[in-house]
Specification:
single chain, 562 residues, mainly alpha, Rossmann fold, five-stranded parallel β-sheet, 5 strands, 54% helix, 4% strand
């Protein structure tokens, strides 16, 4: 799962040259409402240097879209949820139960989260939900498709797979919904570490701040529970390892279970330093020096795990278990069986089948940076107290002994995957059919419906991946080109059908008269303007990009959508 740098690799420049302007990057706070951005920027005040103003302007623009998109649901559900939360003391009563993955940042929580999400009995939040927590069914369904061209297929910090439907951390909902998360100082305004680090531990907060966190956790969990139905809710956020006591109060000791995963502290610290370096693409302030990050991460890691160990006795027997990341990598099926046995959950054949499929799909994964398993960290900068604390944690979680014996995965027992040519053939068949439906709609309504190229791209991309069973870059390019050809090919008939075909003087005595040269000239001009107008270029991009992303993706069904 790790990556070893070649010996010939030159040393990394600790102070690389920065560009004069910090260009915009698809931001995880892009759809946080404007009032949340107001809180992040002004309460307390966070100075944004001029080189970040372009990036700030872009995220505020996208934030305004998210504000409008989620406003109806926010106005309708907001008062109801606040009233319900006060009556219930901010406790969510989800009868099937809640399972929470615990572990500090870069301890393997995402890998464990993805594996557990393969169980169809779990319902876990998706990225389209955590990035716009004020929305609900309507806006989340729209964002699930709208975000496909904008969310990268890999996480910036480690190149793990990502997408709008992939499992997400509920702490992003806290950040984007209430600015009640430590994510703000980690990746957006690092100068405000003292203010936002309090939300990691939920200690030192004012009564109003604590109420804000409880309200957001209850409201978002309530929405997820309604979509979960009779399924268990699966949550994962690294900060949860430091706030077990509050999670017991929120979900009830009898209904919440915990899975704690730990990793060698040296690898965790170095991986976090690398993550801060790569995640600076989201920052609105200069990133912190690596030495400062390393010290803060070391202190926070020790304090977080001590909080967990302090709160473990409060967890009912049979409601918690622990495992090591190294063991999970070596023997994933065996470790998952043990976790399920400790928690009293059934390890179903469907879950095992889904896990094996996912493990086979990620077996070629390599981390994008050097903070991998076994990475060495310079401990000369650590105090004697820090070294002693890390050694105690290593002994407590068993990192002073080797991992379990690696187990080879059983061979795949499913049918061979379809081939690329079949995907191309089906996409080529779906393209004219989708175009025919579009033209029929234009004819019946006399409207151009230029935005229909987006659903056309969705149909083409889904048809390709459905037939091929697994996407490729070439198949994605083919689907995108087909979408562009449909837009170009439909431009002329759309102009005729929407502007001329229904006019009475072209149908004397029930037959269609030929168009004059002057009329054809106007039709061609309308066609040209329809193609190059800004909003049509945007919808063309959405259609082509969505078709590419669907047809090129590696997973037909990512974890969490089984």
């Amino acid at each position: 799962m790790g990556y070893t740098w070649p010996h010939a690799m030159p040393p990394v420049n600790p102070k690389p040259r920065r560009p004069i302007i910090a260009f915009p990057y698809p931001h995880f706070m892009a759809f946080a409402p404007l009032d949340v951005w107001l809180r992040v920027l002004l309460f307390p005040f966070a100075w944004c240097p001029p080189r970040y103003w372009l990036r700030l302007a872009w995220v505020l623009f996208t934030s305004s879209i998210g504000t409008v998109l989620t406003l109806p649901e926010r106005l309708v559900l907001g008062p109801v949820l606040r009233l319900r939360a006060r009556r219930r003391g901010y406790r969510l009563d989800h009868a099937p139960g809640v399972v929470v993955v615990l572990g500090y940042f870069r301890s393997g929580t995402t890998h464990l989260h993805y594996l557990l999400s393969c169980d169809p009995r779990f319902r876990t939040p998706a990225w389209c939900e955590t990035l716009a927590p004020h929305g609900f069914a309507a806006s989340w369904g729209f964002l699930r498709l709208f975000l496909i061209p904008w969310i990268g297929s890999k996480r910036p910090q480690d190149d793990m797979d990502l997408g709008p439907s992939w499992p997400a951390e509920d702490d992003f909902a806290q950040n984007n919904g209430a600015a009640a998360s430590s994510l703000a100082w980690r990746f957006v305004v690092p100068a405000k570490h003292a203010h936002y680090s309090r939300f990691h531990f939920l200690e030192g907060l004012t009564p109003r701040e604590m109420k804000r966190w409880r309200m957001m956790q209850f409201a978002f969990s309530w929405k997820v529970s309604k979509l979960a139905g009779t399924r268990l809710i699966l949550l994962k956020s690294p900060s949860h390892v430091a706030r077990v006591r509050e999670l017991l109060e929120t979900y009830g000791p009898e209904r919440v279970k915990f899975v704690h995963i730990s990793r060698d502290a040296s690898a965790v610290i170095e991986s976090n330093v690398a993550m801060f370096r790569r995640m600076s693409v989201y920052g609105l302030q200069d990133r912190l020096p690596d030495e400062v990050v390393r010290q803060r991460i070391t202190d926070e890691l020790i304090r977080s795990e001590r909080n967990y160990l302090r709160d473990v006795p409060a967890i009912p027997k049979g409601h918690s278990t622990e495992l090591r990341y190294e063991d999970l990598v070596a023997d994933p099926i065996g470790q998952l069986r043990r976790v399920y046995a400790d928690l009293g959950l059934e390890f179903s054949p469907a879950f095992e089948r889904n896990v094996l499929r996912y493990l086979h799909e990620i077996k070629e994964y390599r981390a994008a940076h050097g903070g991998s398993k076994g990475a060495a960290v310079d401990r000369s900068g650590q105090s004697e107290e820090q070294r002693k604390a890390l050694d105690e944690l290593a002994s407590r979680f068993g990192h002073d002994r080797p991992a379990v014996e690696p187990r080879t995965l059983p061979p795949r027992d499913e049918a061979p995957r379809g081939r690329e040519r079949r995907g191309m053939a089906v996409a080529a068949l779906a393209a004219p059919l989708a175009m025919l439906v579009w033209l029929t709609l234009v004819y019946l309504t006399c409207k151009r419906f230029n935005a229909a190229i987006w659903p056309v791209g969705i149909v083409i991309g889904l048809s390709a991946i459905w037939a091929a069973r697994v996407g490729t870059r070439r198949l994605g390019i083919f689907a995108a080109v087909l979408t562009v050809l449909v837009q170009l090919g439909a431009a002329l008939p759309i102009s005729v059908l929407s502007d001329y075909i229904h006019r009475d003087y072209y149908w004397p005595e029930g037959r269609l008269l030929p168009l004059s040269k002057w009329e054809w000239y106007h039709i061609l001009m309308n066609m040209r303007e329809g193609l190059v107008v800004t909003h049509n270029l945007f919808w063309g991009f959405m259609g082509a990009a969505t078709a590419y992303r669907f047809a090129s993706r590696k997973y037909t069904r990512p974890p969490g959508t089984w």
